[in-house]
Amino acid sequence: MNTNSSAVIIPAPSSATNGVGTNASAGDIRDIKAPVEIPSGWFWLWSVLGALAVAAVSYFALRFWRRHRASPAALQAVLPPHERARRKLQQALGIIYQPRPFCILVSDTLRLYLEEAFSLHAPERTTEEFLDELQASPSLSLAQKQLLGDFLMRCDLVKFARHEPSVEQLQELHQSAMRLIDETSVLPPRPVPSTSPAPPSPASTEPSPSPVAPIANGAAPEEASSIAHRPSSAP
To answer: Residue-wise over 206-224: b if at least 16 C-beta within 10 A, else e?
Structure first.
């Protein structure tokens, strides 16, 4: 029997080869993923409520912080005008070697004090306009008005005329401002004119004269007196 020697003989697959192929094909198959959970309406509701709560807490925390941060300014506003003016004048001594900034600060402090204490429109007016208004004001005495006018004029020389005063002169300006504040801070309040009517005068206690009957024609005074005191007769 003739055989074909040139035929190709395919060997049978070994067990090792079959095992590798089986494992490789098994590794390519992935497990089924779990289903993705879709958020319900309650989830979004609680998310919005939580965001609103965080915003409210942040708002109140910011207000609390601002209130406590502004407490020194509120305490400063509670002080009377003369106390605030004294504190600013004490701070001005730190720049007394700078004539122009010193005079600006001292002058503005005194102007603001006069506006707050006596309702004088000092800060927004020129020195001439303010002094004209001051002449008609009963808030200050004549000596105090003269002291204030001299003080403002000397400050204007430094602010606008570039005058260079000495430190001693600046100290005199500072003392003038302090003296004016000390004198005017103890002024008694002006009396408010009363608009109520004057109380009625007490009634006279003198007895009214008793009525006198008319004197008959031709009757004597004695007869007229007897007629006046005679009881009337019944009809």
So the answer is: eeeeeeeeeeeeeeeeeee
